[in-house]
Write a sequence for this structure.
DNA sequence: TTGTATGCGTTATCAG
DNA sequence: CTGATAACGCATACAA
C-alpha cells in the first residue's frame, strides 16, 4: 500500500492524498472524505522512511539510554516521556547496549530520522568536539558531561559532581566512626565513568581523614553481564571473607548496596548493627528496602526537568547550559554510629 | 554528506561507493582504499531511511516493550539482546507507552524499517486477526496471547497461564491456614490483562475452598502513573486500615509485593509473622529483599529463549508455535503457616 | 572492474 | 482547489 494506490482508489492525485494526510494545503471537504475512507479501507500507513527522506527537519526527539535496564534511569525516563509528550513532540526511546557507542547511534538516528534534539542518558565522559559537530543538533548529556577540552557551547549537560558525592558518602561513614570501609565497584573501566569518579571521592575522603587505603577493602566485578543485585551480593561476600573487621561498605550504586545488604543478612550479619551500608543514586527500591538504604540521592526529577527545559530552549535557538546538581544524603536506617560515647 | 559527495571526493561513481559500503559486487583494492579514506575523511554515514526505501527486506528485528520500566522485563530483555546478537541480527528495542497501541507501532516499524521479525513483550490480549495480517511478518507474543478466535498460525506466543497461577498463589496462602487474604491490583482495566486473569484465579481459589469473597479485601490503584512500589505501599495501608484481621496478601506483581511489605514494616507489622505476602513474577529484587518474597516465579529465561527460538524458526519459514510455561512457587520467607497444630 | 540510469514512497513546487 | 513532476539518498540492473 502506497500513497499512489490510495490516490488511485480515491480517484484523486497523489498530492491530494498527501495534503489530506498532513493537513497541508487546502482540500475540499468532499475529496477529503473520499481520501479518508480509501485510507481506512486499505489500512494505509504512510512510510516514514520515505517521509524522512524528503523532510529536512522533524519534531522527533530521541532519548538514548545506555543500559535501559538500569533502574536508576526509570524515574527520569518516565518524566522525560511525560514532559516531551506535553510539549507535543514525539519521543523515541532508544536503548544502547554496553558494547555499542551511543554517540554513533545518536548521529545515525539524527540523520535517519531527522531528529531535532537528542538526550544522552548514561554513557561516559569521552565525547569529543568533533562528534558533537557531526551530531549538529541540540544535545543534552544527562548524568555525564564531556571533557573540559570540548567547547561547552556545543552541548548542554545536567549532572552531579560524582567525585564530590563519592567523597560525601565516604565522609558520612567516617563521621559515624567507621574506619574499615569497603568499596564496591560494578565494573571498573579504563574510561572515566560516574562510577570511577565516585571511587576517586572515596579515596580522597580516606586520605583527608588520615585513613590508610587498603586495597583488600575494594571489590570489583569480574563478569560484566551479571545483574546489579548479584554483583553486590557476590562482592559483599568476598569483602567479608577477607575483612572480618570491616564495619561499613560504600556501594557506588543502590542496586549493589541492596545486593550487599542481602549478602550481609545471609551471612548472619545485621544491617546496620553489624555492618553499615550506604548506596548511591536514590532509586525507589532503596527506600522500600527493609531497612531503607542510606544513600546519596540524585535529584532525578529535577535533573530530568532541567534536561528537558534546556533541550527545548536549545531547539528554539537558545544557548547551551551546564548544570551540576547537588545530591542529598538520605539517612534512613542502614548505617549506624559506632563512635564510642 | 551523501554517497554522491563521497563518489565525487574519491573520483569514482556512486555505485562503486555503494559496493564498497555493502561489500556487494567486485571492487579493485585500489579504488576500495580510495573510497574508504574518502568516507572516513568526511565522516560519511549512509542514510538508513534511503536504504530502507530501496531494500525490500532486512535482518532487523524489533522488540516492542509495553512499559520498559517494568522490572519484570529486565531479564528477558537482556537475554533477548544477547541471543539476537548471537545470531548476527540487529535488534531494535522500542518502548511503547501505556497510552499507545503497541500493534500500531509494530506495524509502522515493520514497514518503515523492513523488519524481518517482531517480538511483543507485555501488552494485552486484544490483538485481532486483521492486525496480524497487516503486520505480515513473523511475530511472537511474549507473556500474552491473542484471543482464541484469532487464527493461531498467524503468530506465535510464549506465555503462562495467569489464571491458573493466580489460583496457585492464592491456594498456597489458603494451605498455610489463611482465610482473610487481600489482593492488590495495579490498575484494573476493562481489557483482559495478565493481571485481571490472576485476579480471576484468586477469586476461583477462594470459591473452591469455601472462603467467601470480601470486596473490602481487594485494593486497586487509582492513579495509573504511580510507580509499582508506591502503589503496593499505599494499597497495603488501605487494606490494613479496613481489615485488621487480614493475615495474608497476594500482590499480582512482585514490585507491588515489595511495596506492600514495606508498608507492613512501617505499620509495625512483621513479615511474615504478622502478615504473609506472596508476589508474582519472580523478579530478582524479590529475592534480594529481606525477607525474600515468596512468589510465583515465571521462567523468564526459558520463556525468552523459547521466544527467540520460535521467532527465528518462523523467519526461516517454520510454523508458528504456542507455548504455555508453568510457573514455580518459590517459598522463601515472606509467608507463614498459621494452621493450628 | 566500473559508471549511468531508474525507482523506492514521500513531500513540495508550480502550473492548471 | 487539484494534479503532474522534481527531488530526497541509496541500491541495483544494465551498459560499458
Amino acid at each position: 500500500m502506497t500513497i499512489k494506490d490510495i490516490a488511485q482508489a480515491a480517484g484523486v492525485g497523489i498530492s491530494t492524498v498527501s495534503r489530506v494526510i498532513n493537513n497541508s494545503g487546502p482540500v475540499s471537504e468532499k475529496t477529503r472524505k473520499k481520501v479518508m475512507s480509501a485510507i481506512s479501507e486499505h489500512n494505509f500507513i504512510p512510510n516514514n522512511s520515505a517521509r524522512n527522506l524528503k523532510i529536512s527537519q522533524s519534531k522527533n526527539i530521541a532519548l538514548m539510554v545506555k543500559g535501559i535496564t538500569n533502574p536508576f534511569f526509570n524515574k527520569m525516563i518516565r518524566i522525560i516521556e511525560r514532559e516531551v509528550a506535553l510539549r507535543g513532540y514525539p519521543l523515541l526511546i532508544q536503548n544502547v547496549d554496553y558494547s555499542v557507542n551511543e554517540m554513533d547511534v545518536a548521529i545515525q538516528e539524527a540523520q535517519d530520522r531527522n531528529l531535532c534534539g537528542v538526550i544522552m542518558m548514561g554513557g561516559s565522559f569521552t565525547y569529543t568536539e568533533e562528534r558533537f559537530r557531526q551530531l549538529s543538533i541540540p544535545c543534552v548529556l544527562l548524568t555525564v558531561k564531556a571533557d573540559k577540552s570540548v567547547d561547552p557551547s556545543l552541548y548542554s549537560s545536567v549532572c552531579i559532581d560524582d567525585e564530590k558525592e563519592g567523597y560525601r558518602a565516604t565522609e558520612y561513614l567516617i563521621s559515624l566512626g567507621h574506619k574499615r570501609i569497603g568499596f564496591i565497584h560494578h565494573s571498573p573501566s579504563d574510561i572515566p565513568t560516574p562510577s570511577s569518579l565516585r571511587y576517586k571521592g572515596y579515596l580522597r575522603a580516606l586520605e583527608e581523614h588520615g585513613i590508610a587505603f587498603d586495597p583488600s577493602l575494594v571489590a570489583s566485578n569480574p563478569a560484566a553481564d551479571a545483574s546489579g543485585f548479584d554483583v553486590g551480593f557476590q562482592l559483599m561476600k568476598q569483602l567479608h571473607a577477607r575483612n572480618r573487621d570491616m564495619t561499613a561498605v560504600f556501594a557506588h550504586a543502590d542496586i549493589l548496596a541492596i545486593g550487599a545488604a542481602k549478602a550481609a543478612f545471609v551471612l548472619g550479619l545485621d544491617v546496620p548493627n553489624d555492618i553499615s551500608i550506604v548506596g548511591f543514586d536514590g532509586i525507589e527500591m532503596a527506600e522500600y528496602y527493609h531497612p531503607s538504604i542510606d544513600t546519596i540521592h540524585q535529584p532525578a526529577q529535577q535533573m530530568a526537568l532541567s534536561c528537558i527545559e534546556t533541550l527545548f530552549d536549545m531547539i528554539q535557538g537558545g544557548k547551551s547550559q551546564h548544570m551540576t546538581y547537588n545530591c542529598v544524603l538520605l539517612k534512613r536506617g542502614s548505617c549506624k554510629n559506632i563512635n564510642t560515647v
User: Anything to note?
Assistant: Chain A is about 45% helix and 15% strand. The interface with chain B takes residues 43, 45, 47-50, 52-53, 68-69, 71, 74-75, 77-78, 81-82, 85, 93-95, 97, 107-108, 111-113, 130, 134, 225, 227, 229-230, 233, 258-259, 261-262, 265, 284-285, 287-290 of chain A (CB under 8 Å). Chain A has a mean pLDDT of 94.
